[in-house]
């Protein structure tokens, strides 16, 4: 394998199902963030559109967090595929890391909304 031939120092991570599960999750969440980013661009986008899209993302993140806490990974297709193809279950530490990350994202978006609302009203 290429990475073995080059003696890649992080090769062992590609054999670690917990690390690969988190990588699959990150792939999914970055895809969703990219979709949001694209939706916030354009000449016809208003501050109200931005506010609505960010509010929708906050609500989605709340839903994702509830699902992950319950062990449901269906909101994350790459993670779901990785887990099912490898006949794995969602490890507790991976679940906790995902929940913490989603919660952090949700808080950051909520802060953005509060700042934006103060800017438009004040």
TrEMBL record:
Top-rank lineage group of the source organism: Eukaryota
Protein known as: Zinc finger BED domain-containing protein 5-like
Lineage per the UniProt record: Eukaryota, Metazoa, Porifera, Hexactinellida, Hexasterophora
């Amino acid at each position: 394998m290429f990475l073995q031939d080059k003696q890649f120092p992080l090769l062992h991570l590609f054999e670690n199902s917990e690390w690969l599960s988190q990588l699959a999750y990150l792939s999914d969440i970055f895809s969703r963030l990219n979709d949001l980013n694209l939706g916030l661009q354009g000449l016809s986008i208003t501050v109200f559109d931005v506010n609505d899209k960010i509010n929708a993302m906050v609500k989605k993140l709340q839903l994702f967090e509830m699902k992950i806490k319950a062990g449901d990974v269906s909101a994350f297709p790459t993670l779901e595929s990785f887990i099912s193809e490898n006949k794995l279950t969602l490890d507790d530490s991976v679940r906790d890391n995902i929940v913490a990350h989603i919660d952090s994202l949700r808080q950051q978006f909520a802060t953005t909304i509060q700042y934006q609302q103060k800017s438009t009203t004040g």
